UniProtKB/TrEMBL annotation:
<protein>
    <submittedName>
        <fullName>Heat-shock protein Hsp20</fullName>
    </submittedName>
</protein>
<dbReference type="InterPro" id="IPR002068">
    <property type="entry name" value="A-crystallin/Hsp20_dom"/>
</dbReference>
<dbReference type="GO" id="GO:0009408">
    <property type="term" value="P:response to heat"/>
</dbReference>
<keyword id="KW-0346">Stress response</keyword>
<comment type="similarity">
    <text>Belongs to the small heat shock protein (HSP20) family.</text>
</comment>
<feature type="domain" description="SHSP">
    <location>
        <begin position="25"/>
        <end position="136"/>
    </location>
</feature>
<dbReference type="InterPro" id="IPR008978">
    <property type="entry name" value="HSP20-like_chaperone"/>
</dbReference>
<dbReference type="Pfam" id="PF00011">
    <property type="entry name" value="HSP20"/>
</dbReference>
<dbReference type="InterPro" id="IPR044587">
    <property type="entry name" value="HSP21-like"/>
</dbReference>
Amino acid sequence: MLEKLWPFGRNRVRKAFEEALEKAFQEVETLEPLSELSEHEDHYLLRVEVPGLGPENLEVRLEGDQLVIEGEKREEKRTKRLAEIVYGKIYRAYLLPKDAKKEGITARLSKGVLEVRIPREKRPAEPPVRIPVQEA
């Protein structure tokens, strides 16, 4: 019956299923925190969820045109009856908008949410540039 549904064979289906389960339950090396970016008249506000991390476990830095947030949530050694909390390194890089100022960026951590305020500079709007399409 399974061969009718999966013409490529039972072993391939079993192998694909086992690989998917293995990936789902393997130890996560780097976590990507959830975030949101809101645009205001004079600044951008980047909010990043980093529950369980303190300022001593976080690093916020500029690398060229990218804002990088990096940290680590370390697991405490103890006997557990239930283990659903994810531990490990976090890393996320955000490309700064064109009108973002690199000077004056501030970061504040409150109740598991990192808020990074990025000032904006006034720039005249750039007109669209038309690119001609050539026939091959």
